[in-house]
Amino acid sequence: xxxxxxxxxxxxxxxxxxxxxxxxxxxxxxxxxxxxxxxxxxxxxxxxxxxxxxxxxxxxxxxxxxxxxxxxxxxxxxxxxxxxxxxxxxxxxxxxxxxxxxxxxxxxxxxxxxxx
Length: 116
Description:
five-stranded mixed β-sheet, alpha/beta, 4 helices, 5 strands, globular, about 120 residues
């Protein structure tokens, strides 16, 4: 009961919900902002500060988007966790295991490719 409700950065519904956690927030938020400036597809970000127990309202946010992509700097552990907890949704994954952060360009390219 003491964990804040999960929020969405950007439009409350749209084409793509970008999901992240931990140190990916800045890059993911910049990629969502870059898309918003161009007024193309609607991208939004749901960044988790609390994974277990996860914040409330995930289901309500997830169902408002056509696609969900989970971006992680690992092999996809959080995406697998979400698949186990919220099985009614399909999750795309974008993982990077090179010891380097995501770049905004590679993120926006990936997001647009998912919607083609």
